[in-house]
Amino acid sequence: MKNLLIQAIADSIKGNSTLPALSDFGGQTLTFRQLGRKIAEIHILYKAIGLRQGDKVALCAKNSASWAVTFLATMTYGAVPVPLLHEFHPDSPYTPRPGCSLPRSQSPTTSTPSGSPASRP
């Protein structure tokens, strides 16, 4: 299924290169060709920093064409996009308070390029 989705994205980029692909409300519009180039640039960046297939990439931004480009680039690279709510605030009821701790299974973690989890402070 994953390969079918990636192939459908690639086919859309190739078959619709001059058509609009993504737009910001009242702002820029990217063609499918521009989308493909931006995805390729992000793939180069991911390779340069040692990101591997299956690594998680946190995405925290307002809804925008750039967010969508990054999501598609992450997914087509083989990494796992992890969208984070950009309105998240430290006073959220789901944020542990100082002196409180979550059970180990709920502790926030991030993956290192080697794939091993690294606990956050």
The termini sit apart by 37 Å
Overall form: globular
The biggest sheet, with number of strands, parallel, antiparallel or mixed sense and barrel status, is: 2 strands, antiparallel
Oligomeric state: single chain
Total E-strand runs: 6
**What proportion of the residues form beta strands (DSSP E)?**
15-25%
Number of helices: 3
Rg, Å, rounded: 17 Å
Mean pLDDT over the residues: 80
- The string of secondary-structure elements, in order, is HEEHEHEEE
Written overview of the protein:
By secondary structure, this protein is α+β, with helices and mostly antiparallel strands. Mean pLDDT is 80; it is low at 100-121. The longest helix is centred in the N-terminal third of the chain and has 17 residues, at 32-48. It is globular. It has 3 helices and 6 strands. Helix 3 (65-77) links the parallel strand 3 and strand 4 (80-83). The strands form 3 sheets. Strands 1-2 form a two-stranded antiparallel ribbon. Strands 3-4 form a two-stranded parallel ribbon. It has helices at residues 2-15, 32-48, 65-77, and strands spanning 20-23, 29-31, 56-59, 80-83, 109-111, 117-119. It is 36% helix and 17% strand. The termini are far apart.
Provide a brief overview of the structure.
With about 120 residues, the protein is of the alpha+beta class. About 35% of the residues lie in helices and about 15% in strands. The chain contains three helices and six strands; from the N terminus they run αββαβαβββ.
